[in-house]
Amino acid sequence: MSLLVVGSVALDSVETPFGLKEDILGGSATYFSTSASFFTPVKMVAVVGEDFPQAHLDFLKGRGVDLEGITREKGRTFRWKGRYGWQLNEAETLDTQLNVFQSFSPKLPESYRDAQFVFLGNIHPELQSQVVDQVKGPKLVAADTMNFWINGSRPSLLKTLKRVNLLFVNDAEARQLSGEHNIVRAARAILGMGPQRIVVKRGEYGALLFDQEHIFACPALPLADVFDPTGAGDTFAGGFMGTLATAGRVDGEVLRRAMVMGSVMASFTVEKFSLERLREVERNDIRVRFSEFKRLTHFEELGPLDG
Q1: Domain that holds residue 199
Q2: Is 73 exposed, middle or buried (0-12, 13-18, 19+ CB in 10 A)?
Q3: What CATH number does residue 31 fall under?
Q4: N or C: which end of the chain has fewer CB within 10 A?
Q5: Claim: this prediction has a pTM higher than 0.70
């Protein structure tokens, strides 16, 4: 089924202990779309500037991403510059230039409005609500957010949360949004704000899926080479939502598979800078790594304890 993403397309400059890359392809919608495109066609809504390389758009188009919703405005493309330390847990933002993204107002082409699965990338919650206003009866609306909106736009965010079915946050954001230190209590508090489900991303420790009755834990794949975690969360969301859209339904079995597939796709992204690793991935690579996750978590039923 059709999958829509609204978010940022950016040019990033990223420094890690393993190197420095400048003006590389980034943005929440970019990582999400590339990841999801392995599973289903994606419709993207975003804005770029006059300086955005056509080669990047050609790459997305080559991945089967529908770019009718991309607008090119006068001015420079959104730019982000960040640095990671040896732990690679969190980036230090060195510079943010919103540029054309500052006046971004998402307008969905008519052909996008019947999308059955919708992902609202990390944009202002009022813009997220504007997108919900434009879609017609989707099966599932998922949203991402960040500490900036939790702190500075909480009333708007709380209104948006009442309109989404699923929220993606990391563990620090879950604690900040809920005011609860314990992650289980935090998830339960957020479920009370509107979403029926919440995915808590925990970086190298995996991710947790919560609904009102169940918790599902998915580990991260232990990797020998981790170079750049930028975009891993959006890549996870792309694998997750792409799996749901392919199945065309939202139930326990599909959601658990989506969690693993999100972790699979994120495990590729961190192995190189930007989308370099995802450019190399083929569908068989995904199948092999999915099987690695299955072996990693498989165990037999417990037999008698007395011998």
Answers
A1: 3-297
A2: middle
A3: 3.40.1190.20
A4: C
A5: yes
